[in-house]
Design a protein that fits this description.
The structure is a homodimer.
Chain A (H helix, E strand, L loop, with lengths): L4 H14 L9 H8 L3 H13 L3 E4 L5 E4 L8 H9 L17 H26 L3 H5 L4
Antiparallel strand pairs in A: 1-2
Chain lengths: ~140, ~140
């Protein structure tokens, strides 16, 4: 299954940033409607965003969520790490090493180092992108 | 399904690089055995690596593959692009925009820009990694 957690989270956060400063809260049902996506999936992402202190949640009638900080104080790295921390950027294969082959025996660590380098480069880019930069692109 | 094309291709290329300069060719069956992976999957990757001029293929009895260039002349960026060119680094969601929402209408382009930036950072890192660097890590 295609993993859209980051893309959907960026859209949730950008929607909240677009309304930042207003009184209106948004609900997971609002996002389910706009994104044409299962509200349960949205709620799981919102839970992660709340845990990462990116979003504040208010319960009860008229409840919903809003940004916990100003859009210029939130980077895309924080959003990525909040929802994708459990997944490597590209998959490494999990088969046990073929013991008669020195390449195979070293490959687990070599691939781990490569993927770690890829992740660091990506996160370094995302750290420079602020939510306010995305809002400024909305037409 | 987890996409291991890059990881498996890096292992194929590192195995060939480890043997670079020797006479022995390796076959897709050899790699299927070492990697405990379906040889058909391996053959598809090898076809891409041949098309990208990273690997040379020799048919017939005793046939197989070898590197087309020295390990220090091959970067991981070339390997990535050879086998992953048809896939974005992270998925964007393909749902049509919700026309009453300005954020939704701009989001396709905004997400495309973000993922393009992530891909450029990753490729820039992979461009600096040579196959010879990986061979030097084999114990």
């Amino acid at each position: 299954m295609v993993d859209t957690r980051f893309a959907v989270s960026v859209q949730i956060m950008t929607s909240l940033a677009y309304r930042y400063g207003g009184e209106e809260l948004m609900s997971s049902e609002d996002f389910g409607h706009i994104l044409q996506t299962n509200p349960t999936f949205i709620r799981k992402l919102i839970t992660k965003l709340v845990q990462a202190n990116l979003v504040e949640s208010f319960r009860g009638k008229g409840g919903g969520i809003k940004l916990a900080r100003a859009p210029r104080e939130i980077t895309l790295k924080e959003i990525y790490q909040a929802v994708m921390a459990d997944k490597r950027l590209v998959a490494t294969h999990e088969k046990p090493a073929f013991k008669h082959c020195p390449v195979s025996c070293s490959m687990g660590q070599i691939l781990c180092d490569v993927v770690t380098g890829m992740e660091r480069s990506t996160l370094s880019y995302l750290e420079k992108q602020r939510l306010s930069d995305l809002v400024s692109k909305i037409k």
